[in-house]
Specification:
Layout lengths: L1 E6 L7 E3 L7 E3 L8 H12 L3 E6 L7 H10 L4 E5 L5 H14 L4 E5 L1 H5 L1 H7 L4 E3 L4 H14 L8 E4 L5 E3 L35 E4 L2 E2 L11 H4 L4 E2 L2 H15 L3 E4 L8 H12 L7 E5 L2 H6 L1 H9 L2 E9 L3 H6 L6 H14 L2 E8 L6 H16 L5 E6 L7 H9 L26 H12 L5 H9 L4 H22 L4
Parallel strand pairs: 1-4, 1-5, 5-6, 6-7, 10-13, 13-14, 14-15, 15-16, 16-17
Antiparallel strand pairs: 2-3, 7-8, 8-9, 11-12
Length: 488
């Protein structure tokens, strides 16, 4: 069968940040993060004998009409794409348009929104199939086999209409596939060169995803708790082999593993030693997501990570309020966050903080304490970069249910398009919507503090550093602009 895995162009307010992302946002300056699970899906389908097309109209900056022409000219049998709450109505309209123009094509949606509300999409659009759960690489392969061979059963977590128009389901999704059975992603098929992080330092830059998704997996705001209800990882040797594959075949100089949380304990020690023994630590820079408390619990690991070529860790600060961290079920103390920052930076690891504002129980002074802590960590050199967002309660998350129970929504939560971070979704005790958005912009202004600027100028050692700082300055300007654009 001919299968197209797509991210159709969206004619919205700016560039949509949709791929591999826990929170959607329209970006003034495009951000194109590699969609790892769909990339695995494309690879698995191709290995299974299907003709696979990869169409990312967002990253490739192609038009919606390009997308429709490709579906028609290539005579695609199945088109599948990821959706999220703020753009699910866009995708319903796109699918209805596709079915109007090409009635015989089968359409598939997957992602956290349709996992939380699978029947809704079938009732409100002409979508043929919904795949729930986070392993939609395995489940899409299973669905294609079922449609192609008419022999296998549909994968768990699939939803569709039968011949009478009644909604059917194959039962709950299952996350029991062996991640070690996955092939290396076909980076050519999936056009991996289009994707990167704005904070990249070297090129070529590529992504990996060794785990799904997080050892803790209980944070009340995280949309991926909807799609991943357990934690699994590949063997450390599998990731080492993939790093070697990227170096040998693509000349890669920097890798970001975008697992929700990088494995820890013996796994990480073995991986780091393998990076050193194989000489990869001399070839690439490596970055991952990691919780601060795991760094504090394994202080000897930090030096080994630096020796193994780790450049940066991305970790969640979220809030300077312990009460908020407890409400979010983060299982961490504020002092561990601060200590983790200090330990990592002193060892030579850059720290990127993720921060949120707009919690429905936080006052303006609570939020200001978070801004002040971020500024303090920046000014003292314990944090190198940050990411600020507004709290968005996606359907399926505990915080969404809390918002329903407590009447925290500012508007009808069925207005999905307003979950796009151009305004707060939730009320706060004493902040206006403009004040919440401006608080996010204020966090990014930490990059502009004189001490931070001077310290980074002093760190310049090469043209690589100059390029990195210049791109960072442009990105910060874009982020500040993103949060000044408030819906009136």
């Amino acid at each position: 069968m001919k299968v197209c895995i797509a991210y159709p162009a969206l004619n919205g307010k700016a560039s949509p940040m949709l791929t591999q992302n826990r929170q959607f946002q329209w970006m003034s300056i495009g951000s194109y993060i590699y969609p790892l699970v769909p990339a695995y899906a494309a690879t698995l389908l191709a290995e299974d004998g299907n003709n696979v097309l990869w169409h990312d109209g967002i990253a490739e900056q192609r038009t919606y009409e390009d997308f429709l022409r490709e579906l028609e000219s290539e005579k695609v049998d199945i088109v599948a794409f990821e959706t999220k709450t703020p753009v699910v109505k866009y995708h319903w309209n796109i699918i209805d348009d596709i079915k109007e123009r090409i009635p015989e094509i089968k359409t598939v949606l997957y992602g956290d929104h349709v996992t939380a509300l699978p029947e809704e999409t079938l009732l409100r659009s002409k979508t043929d199939f919904v795949l729930t759960g986070g392993d939609y690489d395995f489940s899409l392969r299973g669905l294609v086999r079922w449609l192609r061979d008419s022999s296998d059963s549909p994968p768990g977590g699939a939803w569709w209409r039968d011949d009478r128009g009644e909604i059917r389901s194959s039962g709950p999704f299952r996350l029991d596939s062996d991640l070690n059975s996955l092939p290396f992603i076909d980076r050519d098929l999936t056009k991996a060169h289009h994707y990167y992080e704005k904070w990249k330092k070297r090129e070529p830059f590529r992504y990996t995803m060794v785990a799904r998704d997080c050892q803790w997996g209980r944070c009340t705001f995280c949309s991926w708790t909807t799609t991943y209800n357990n934690f699994r990882t590949q063997k450390h040797t599998k990731l080492l082999d993939e790093v070697g594959h990227l170096i040998e075949n693509y000349g890669v100089k920097e890798v970001f593993d975008d697992s929700g949380n990088f494995p820890t304990g013996k796994w990480t020690y073995d991986f780091c030693r393998g990076m050193i023994e194989r000489g990869y630590s001399d070839e690439i820079l490596f970055t991952c997501n990691m919780k601060f408390d795991l760094l504090v619990k394994h202080p000897d690991l930090i030096d080994l990570m630096v020796e193994a070529g780790f450049r940066k860790v991305k970790s969640g600060l979220e809030s300077a309020s312990q009460a908020t961290l407890d409400m979010l079920d983060k299982n961490i103390k504020v002092e561990d966050i601060v200590e983790g920052c200090k330990m990592a930076s002193r060892a030579g690891l850059d720290v990127q903080l993720t921060i949120m504002v707009g919690y429905p129980w936080e006052t303006k002074s609570d939020a200001q304490r978070t801004v002040d802590l971020a500024r303090e960590l920046f000014d003292q050199g314990y944090a190198e970069m940050l990411q600020a967002t507004v709290v968005i309660p996606y359907p399926g998350t505990p915080i969404y249910e809390m918002a329903q129970a407590n009447g925290w929504f500012r508007f009808d939560p069925a207005e999905y398009e307003r979950f796009d971070m151009t305004e707060p979704v939730l009320t706060t005790p004493d902040m206006t919507p403009d004040e919440v958005q401006n608080m996010s912009a204020q966090i990014y202004k930490n990059f502009l503090s004189p001490r931070f600027v001077v310290r980074n100028i002093k760190k310049i050692r090469s043209w690589e550093d100059i390029s990195y700082l210049a791109r960072g300055a442009v990105a910060v300007g874009g982020h500040i602009a993103d949060f000044w654009k408030v819906r009136k």
